[in-house]
Amino acid sequence: MQLLVSVRCAAEAVAALDGGADVIDAKDPQTGALGAVSLEALRDIHTAVAGRRPVTAAIGEATDEAMVEPTARAFAAGGARVVKVGFGGITTAARIESLAAAAQRGAVAGAASSAVVLVAYADGDSRTSIAPAALVDIAARVGARGVLLDTADKHGLGLTRLLDRRALAAWVDRAHQHGLFVALAGRLAADDLPLVRAAGADIAGVRGAVCEGGRTGRVSRELVRTLRECCVARSSDHGPAEAGHYR
Q: Of the listed 6, 12, 24, 27, which one is catalytic?
Protein backbone atom coordinates (compact mmCIF):
# COMPACT_ATOMS: atom_id res chain seq x y z
CA MET A 1 0.00 0.00 0.00
CA GLN A 2 1.23 3.46 -0.84
CA LEU A 3 0.91 6.75 1.02
CA LEU A 4 -0.72 9.83 -0.53
CA VAL A 5 -0.09 13.11 1.26
CA SER A 6 -2.24 16.14 0.53
CA VAL A 7 -0.28 19.41 0.33
CA ARG A 8 -1.29 22.99 -0.34
CA CYS A 9 2.00 24.48 -1.52
CA ALA A 10 5.44 23.65 -2.89
CA ALA A 11 7.12 23.77 0.54
CA GLU A 12 4.72 21.15 1.88
CA ALA A 13 5.30 19.05 -1.25
CA VAL A 14 9.02 19.03 -0.52
CA ALA A 15 8.40 17.99 3.11
CA ALA A 16 6.13 15.17 1.93
CA LEU A 17 8.72 14.00 -0.57
CA ASP A 18 11.48 14.08 2.03
CA GLY A 19 9.29 12.02 4.35
CA GLY A 20 8.81 9.35 1.71
CA ALA A 21 5.29 10.01 0.40
CA ASP A 22 4.47 7.93 -2.68
CA VAL A 23 1.90 10.34 -4.14
CA ILE A 24 1.72 14.12 -3.77
CA ASP A 25 -1.83 15.44 -3.78
CA ALA A 26 -2.62 19.12 -4.28
CA LYS A 27 -5.49 20.19 -2.03
CA ASP A 28 -6.54 23.23 0.00
CA PRO A 29 -7.61 21.99 3.46
CA GLN A 30 -9.28 25.32 4.24
CA THR A 31 -12.02 24.81 1.65
CA GLY A 32 -13.50 21.41 2.34
CA ALA A 33 -12.74 17.75 1.83
CA LEU A 34 -11.87 18.32 -1.83
CA GLY A 35 -10.81 21.96 -1.76
CA ALA A 36 -8.88 22.94 -4.87
CA VAL A 37 -5.62 24.85 -4.77
CA SER A 38 -5.08 27.61 -7.32
CA LEU A 39 -3.64 26.64 -10.68
CA GLU A 40 -0.55 28.65 -9.77
CA ALA A 41 -0.10 26.61 -6.59
CA LEU A 42 -0.58 23.38 -8.54
CA ARG A 43 2.11 24.38 -11.01
CA ASP A 44 4.46 25.26 -8.15
CA ILE A 45 3.81 21.88 -6.54
CA HIS A 46 4.38 20.11 -9.85
CA THR A 47 7.66 21.97 -10.33
CA ALA A 48 8.82 21.12 -6.80
CA VAL A 49 8.03 17.42 -7.27
CA ALA A 50 9.90 17.46 -10.59
CA GLY A 51 8.64 14.09 -11.73
CA ARG A 52 9.88 12.21 -8.67
CA ARG A 53 6.35 11.21 -7.67
CA PRO A 54 2.93 11.31 -9.29
CA VAL A 55 0.99 14.51 -8.61
CA THR A 56 -2.77 14.43 -8.13
CA ALA A 57 -5.22 17.25 -7.46
CA ALA A 58 -8.65 17.75 -5.94
CA ILE A 59 -11.03 20.02 -7.86
CA GLY A 60 -14.01 20.07 -5.51
CA GLU A 61 -17.61 18.97 -5.88
CA ALA A 62 -19.00 18.82 -9.42
CA THR A 63 -22.29 20.60 -10.00
CA ASP A 64 -22.19 21.64 -13.66
CA GLU A 65 -20.73 19.91 -16.73
CA ALA A 66 -19.84 23.28 -18.25
CA MET A 67 -17.65 24.01 -15.23
CA VAL A 68 -16.20 20.65 -14.27
CA GLU A 69 -14.92 19.77 -17.75
CA PRO A 70 -12.71 22.87 -18.24
CA THR A 71 -11.61 22.71 -14.60
CA ALA A 72 -10.46 19.10 -14.99
CA ARG A 73 -8.74 20.04 -18.25
CA ALA A 74 -6.89 22.94 -16.65
CA PHE A 75 -5.70 20.90 -13.66
CA ALA A 76 -4.56 18.02 -15.87
CA ALA A 77 -2.69 20.46 -18.10
CA GLY A 78 -1.19 22.00 -14.96
CA GLY A 79 0.47 18.73 -14.00
CA ALA A 80 -2.13 16.59 -12.22
CA ARG A 81 -1.88 13.00 -13.38
CA VAL A 82 -5.15 12.30 -11.59
CA VAL A 83 -7.97 14.76 -10.95
CA LYS A 84 -10.20 13.95 -7.96
CA VAL A 85 -13.83 15.04 -8.12
CA GLY A 86 -16.73 14.62 -5.71
CA PHE A 87 -20.48 14.84 -6.07
CA GLY A 88 -21.69 16.02 -2.68
CA GLY A 89 -25.35 17.02 -2.69
CA ILE A 90 -26.22 14.97 -5.78
CA THR A 91 -28.21 11.80 -5.24
CA THR A 92 -29.12 10.58 -8.74
CA ALA A 93 -26.82 8.17 -10.54
CA ALA A 94 -27.63 9.54 -14.01
CA ARG A 95 -26.67 13.08 -12.99
CA ILE A 96 -23.45 11.96 -11.38
CA GLU A 97 -22.55 9.88 -14.41
CA SER A 98 -23.01 12.89 -16.69
CA LEU A 99 -20.80 15.04 -14.47
CA ALA A 100 -18.19 12.31 -14.10
CA ALA A 101 -18.05 11.79 -17.86
CA ALA A 102 -17.51 15.53 -18.36
CA ALA A 103 -14.68 15.51 -15.82
CA GLN A 104 -13.08 12.52 -17.52
CA ARG A 105 -13.29 14.22 -20.93
CA GLY A 106 -11.67 17.32 -19.49
CA ALA A 107 -8.84 15.44 -17.80
CA VAL A 108 -7.95 13.54 -20.97
CA ALA A 109 -8.13 16.74 -23.03
CA GLY A 110 -5.74 18.43 -20.60
CA ALA A 111 -3.18 15.61 -20.78
CA ALA A 112 -3.62 12.34 -22.62
CA SER A 113 -2.17 10.37 -19.69
CA SER A 114 -4.48 11.96 -17.11
CA ALA A 115 -7.79 10.65 -15.80
CA VAL A 116 -10.24 11.16 -12.98
CA VAL A 117 -10.81 9.54 -9.62
CA LEU A 118 -14.39 9.66 -8.37
CA VAL A 119 -14.88 10.36 -4.68
CA ALA A 120 -17.55 8.77 -2.47
CA TYR A 121 -18.28 9.74 1.13
CA ALA A 122 -18.59 7.19 3.90
CA ASP A 123 -20.42 9.70 6.09
CA GLY A 124 -23.02 10.63 3.49
CA ASP A 125 -26.65 9.55 3.44
CA SER A 126 -29.38 9.22 0.83
CA ARG A 127 -30.27 12.91 1.20
CA THR A 128 -26.77 14.18 0.43
CA SER A 129 -24.92 11.61 -1.67
CA ILE A 130 -25.09 8.45 -3.72
CA ALA A 131 -24.18 5.10 -2.17
CA PRO A 132 -20.44 4.39 -2.45
CA ALA A 133 -21.10 1.07 -4.22
CA ALA A 134 -23.09 2.83 -6.92
CA LEU A 135 -20.28 5.32 -7.47
CA VAL A 136 -17.89 2.44 -8.19
CA ASP A 137 -20.13 1.27 -11.01
CA ILE A 138 -20.32 4.78 -12.45
CA ALA A 139 -16.53 5.13 -12.29
CA ALA A 140 -16.14 1.97 -14.36
CA ARG A 141 -18.64 3.15 -16.97
CA VAL A 142 -17.06 6.58 -17.54
CA GLY A 143 -13.49 5.29 -17.75
CA ALA A 144 -12.23 6.70 -14.45
CA ARG A 145 -8.89 5.42 -13.26
CA GLY A 146 -9.90 4.83 -9.67
CA VAL A 147 -12.13 5.63 -6.73
CA LEU A 148 -11.60 7.20 -3.35
CA LEU A 149 -13.70 6.62 -0.25
CA ASP A 150 -13.35 9.60 2.06
CA THR A 151 -15.26 11.55 4.70
CA ALA A 152 -16.94 14.86 3.94
CA ASP A 153 -17.00 16.09 7.53
CA LYS A 154 -13.43 16.58 8.69
CA HIS A 155 -14.61 17.24 12.25
CA GLY A 156 -16.71 14.08 12.47
CA LEU A 157 -15.87 10.40 12.73
CA GLY A 158 -12.97 9.02 10.73
CA LEU A 159 -13.35 6.38 8.04
CA THR A 160 -12.46 3.41 10.23
CA ARG A 161 -14.99 4.52 12.84
CA LEU A 162 -17.72 4.64 10.21
CA LEU A 163 -16.98 1.36 8.43
CA ASP A 164 -15.38 -1.83 9.71
CA ARG A 165 -12.79 -3.91 7.89
CA ARG A 166 -15.39 -6.18 6.30
CA ALA A 167 -17.34 -3.28 4.80
CA LEU A 168 -14.18 -1.57 3.56
CA ALA A 169 -12.85 -4.80 2.06
CA ALA A 170 -16.14 -5.40 0.22
CA TRP A 171 -16.03 -1.93 -1.31
CA VAL A 172 -12.38 -2.28 -2.27
CA ASP A 173 -13.02 -5.67 -3.84
CA ARG A 174 -15.95 -4.32 -5.87
CA ALA A 175 -13.71 -1.59 -7.30
CA HIS A 176 -10.86 -3.99 -8.02
CA GLN A 177 -13.25 -6.25 -9.91
CA HIS A 178 -13.95 -3.29 -12.19
CA GLY A 179 -10.20 -2.77 -12.73
CA LEU A 180 -10.10 0.43 -10.67
CA PHE A 181 -7.46 1.33 -8.14
CA VAL A 182 -8.71 2.21 -4.67
CA ALA A 183 -7.73 4.92 -2.23
CA LEU A 184 -9.10 5.21 1.29
CA ALA A 185 -8.97 8.39 3.34
CA GLY A 186 -10.89 10.26 6.01
CA ARG A 187 -9.14 11.31 9.23
CA LEU A 188 -6.78 8.35 9.06
CA ALA A 189 -4.11 8.06 11.74
CA ALA A 190 -1.15 5.72 12.05
CA ASP A 191 -3.22 3.21 14.02
CA ASP A 192 -5.75 3.02 11.17
CA LEU A 193 -3.30 2.11 8.43
CA PRO A 194 -3.00 -1.63 9.21
CA LEU A 195 -6.78 -1.94 8.88
CA VAL A 196 -6.80 0.06 5.64
CA ARG A 197 -4.03 -2.10 4.27
CA ALA A 198 -5.80 -5.29 5.35
CA ALA A 199 -8.93 -4.12 3.54
CA GLY A 200 -6.92 -4.24 0.31
CA ALA A 201 -6.56 -0.53 -0.43
CA ASP A 202 -3.89 0.46 -2.93
CA ILE A 203 -3.44 3.90 -1.40
CA ALA A 204 -4.01 5.52 2.00
CA GLY A 205 -4.62 9.25 1.83
CA VAL A 206 -3.73 11.56 4.72
CA ARG A 207 -3.50 15.20 5.64
CA GLY A 208 -4.13 15.96 9.31
CA ALA A 209 -2.10 13.00 10.56
CA VAL A 210 1.06 14.35 8.94
CA CYS A 211 0.60 18.00 9.90
CA GLU A 212 1.92 19.90 12.89
CA GLY A 213 -1.15 21.61 14.28
CA GLY A 214 -3.75 19.41 12.62
CA ARG A 215 -5.30 19.42 9.17
CA THR A 216 -4.80 23.13 8.57
CA GLY A 217 -1.26 23.10 9.95
CA ARG A 218 1.92 22.37 7.98
CA VAL A 219 3.10 19.03 6.65
CA SER A 220 5.90 17.54 8.74
CA ARG A 221 8.59 15.42 7.11
CA GLU A 222 8.97 13.38 10.29
CA LEU A 223 5.26 12.64 10.58
CA VAL A 224 5.12 11.62 6.92
CA ARG A 225 8.02 9.25 7.51
CA THR A 226 6.23 7.65 10.47
CA LEU A 227 3.07 7.01 8.47
CA ARG A 228 5.01 5.79 5.47
CA GLU A 229 6.53 3.07 7.64
CA CYS A 230 3.02 2.01 8.66
CA CYS A 231 2.10 1.59 4.99
CA VAL A 232 4.91 -0.81 4.12
CA ALA A 233 3.27 -4.06 3.17
CA ARG A 234 4.19 -7.51 2.06
CA SER A 235 3.87 -8.04 -1.67
CA SER A 236 0.84 -10.26 -1.05
CA ASP A 237 -1.00 -7.26 0.46
CA HIS A 238 -1.25 -5.46 -2.86
CA GLY A 239 -4.49 -5.55 -4.79
CA PRO A 240 -4.71 -5.83 -8.57
CA ALA A 241 -4.63 -2.08 -9.11
CA GLU A 242 -1.37 -0.55 -7.95
CA ALA A 243 -0.69 3.10 -7.24
CA GLY A 244 1.58 2.95 -10.28
CA HIS A 245 -1.59 3.61 -12.28
CA TYR A 246 -1.11 7.24 -11.24
CA ARG A 247 1.98 7.38 -13.40
A: 27
